[in-house]
Amino acid sequence: MTDKKTIxxxxxxxxxxxxxxxxxxxxxxxxxAESFDVQIIGLSYESLEPGIYMHDLVDKTYQIPYPSSGTxxxxxxxRYIHEKEKLDMIIPNFDAELFxxxxxxxELDKLGIKTFLxxxxxxxxxxxxxxxxxxxKYGFNVPESKAIHNIADLYSIGSTFDYPLVVKGKFYDAGxxxxxxxxxxxxxxxxxxxxxxxxxQEFVHGTEFNVTGLGDGEGNTISAVPIRKxxxxxxxxxxxxxxxxxxxxxxxxxxxxxxxxxRGGFExxxxxxxxGKFFILEINPRIPAWVYLAVGAGxxxxxxxxxxxxxxNPKPFSDYAVGKMFIRYSWDMIVDLExxxxxxxxxxx
Amino acid sequence: xKIKKNVAISDSGFIFNPDTGESFSANPxxxxxxxxxxxxxxxxxxxxxxxxKYKSEKDTVEKDYNDFITMLKQYNLIENDGQKDD
Amino acid sequence: xxxxxxxxxxxxxxxxxxxxxxxSRTEFLPKTHIDGIAVKxxxxxxxxxxxVISEKxxxxxxxxxxxxxxxxxxxxxxAWSYKTNYLSAVCNVFHQEGSWAEVVSGFEYDKALANGVSxxxxxxxxxxxxxxxxxxxxxxDSLIHIDHLDELxxxxxxxxxxxxxxxxxxxxxxxxxxxxxWDRFGFNYENGQAWDALNKIMRSGKLELVGLHTxxxxxxxxxxxxxxxxxKLADLAIGIRNRYNHKIKYIDMGGGFAxxxxxxxxxxxxxxxxxxxxxxxxxxxxxxINSDFEPxxxxxxxxxxxxxxxxxxxxxxxxxxxxxxxxxxxxNTIVDVGVNLLFTSFWYDHKITPAREFTHYVEDTVLYGxxxxxxxxxxxxxxxxxxxxxxxxxxxxxxxxNLTQWMQFITLRPKVVMIGSDGKPYLIRESxxxxxxxxxxxxxxxxxxxxx
Lengths: 349, 86, 452
What we know:
heterotrimer, A: alpha+beta, Rossmann fold, D-amino Acid Aminotransferase, Chain A, domain 1, 3 domains, six-stranded antiparallel beta sheet, four-stranded parallel beta sheet, 11 helices, globular, B: alpha+beta, 3 helices, 4 strands, 15% strand
């Protein structure tokens, strides 16, 4: 038996709450990796992110500045953390921070910190307001979408969209509006939190499915696991799901990866309408919070992602267990005030 | 003007109010003022100590002190024993 | 013993929330010097508030914009957009760099002439050119960009009368996939207005059609819209060649490039997200090169970008007047810079930094200007270090539009200083005095005296 290499990886999105970030699930995948051992450095924005206090999963946590502070502030902080920790890799998991990390990737690489992220072009092409152009370019069915900057535009879009329609934020949040008053209310609520534009999307009736996967940036599928969400919370998050076998969805995922040469993890949100046609509702450019189901079904996406970043050439997964389920649960940790004080005042724990 | 007895003030600038479960942070001068208030000093003494140590003026310290007290009251960190401002 | 630097006491409640757009920005890195001169000294010598323009920054920015285009396209000409900043010293830096002048009124036209720009190198845009303006422009052989049919008819009449062949272009508006469409200026591409105007020009035989112009919007955050616009102008130019065997000499893509400022409502800072000159240049030049122009016969590409060339070169220095608390406990800070000077604070969350070192403690504050008017808000919410009365600060990227749209309102306008490439400060605009305002007033005889 050979000694396994230990890789030091920083992971964000430790907010394993009712609308969870993927960080903790990603870390669980990494801890179970067969090909290497890990040390995990948590990167947090807030003092109450549960992952900070999960010492069996996260070895040490540092707070980092919000994406809205700009990349230079983020880079300074990461350089400080790197000086202390000598990171091998960073896995960012929040939509809102991805752009900043993509911009910094070359600088981080110079410091010896690997990432494995989509390109700016891939990231922008799949943005919600670019989805119609994306569908046309690559030949996917997508709902009609339009970005609006002004609440008054809700009146003029009536000619293009029928109610109900979906009102979405640039990064997160969405609501189904059945009339203009509801649409206005969602516009105000979502834009106050996530800024502009707001995306108005055609509502597609049908059954929702999701796929998580991993592309190697050359057009090859390293991993793809389709699921159906079984229980969805009032925040629109899955609380239970099951892996399924659907050739058409796997083909669609292959087509997505090969045509865009997708680099890194992703999640496809799909809707299958009455005629059995699949629509892509959204392409999330990062690993989803339910990724541990893919790990449990036999495709350790976080492990494969690290191998891609570290040049360890992972073999594409060829199989996964169908009918594996995940059921999410919440867990009350007991934390001493000293720990909270430590992360709140020094930004490190 | 007294800081509530059970309020915990740590050297790091972390303040915890066990009555309400709220926590706060203060800058170094804020910490010094809190310590002086806890030691029962009145405004005159506090001002003198601050002006002995820092480059400032009486008016500035007075204005900032009053503002600081307002915030302590707003955060419920001051003993509420019906006593008037001294 | 030397006394320590004082800072006001601060206590802040620790609140936990998931990241949102109000996350604190670390804006407390001080800006102590501009081009080597201390902010403190500038305010000492010229007063507060004070506009400061960096000549070095203008020249460097211009060169990087020029490089972005010249490395991709053979024939490039910039024209300085006077309305963005028409302080003569600023205009002349651009003219020294090789920029023509782009003006939108008789006043700006005269200013360009007075600065020494040859009439042939002035582009005259805008919907309001009076008959006198047009006469002058025709006499000087300037490039007249026609905005509407009434103007076109006037120019045809003037050409007859003056026995001259004016050099003209039309402004074209179009759908570039970005909304709102700026269709109030010029002639529409999609509905045939543009062709109608072009046919009238060509059939009149009295005007020389030299170019096509568009200006698709302002603070454009997608470079690709320029590609669409360039493609549509190229399509018109090729149509003119085919129909009239006439080659236009230039395509003028206007301006509208974003600067590094952050628009209100944006989540990420503008410095991270806004397109660069390279992005715009790539979109425009590849559309032109890939169109049906013969490769050796590409038209001159004119650019009228203003904001992106001058915004970062401008700073506004100011001082804190007072700190207060609003009734809900929120901090507010009153400064001597108001919306009368910083018109762009209606559009942007301007970056504001202190002019000296502070500790890392910050407080969220509303930043109010000095005017006795409720609208006078510079930033609705900004995290700033614990600045007290008299502390100085620097507002960044204010070079575009503020020095032309500023208002003489309630108070007088301050001095403007340019820090030359030689590192020395030059006063380029004096502060106003009460006489500069009252000199233009007239008092009727019967109102001259009163008793109180």
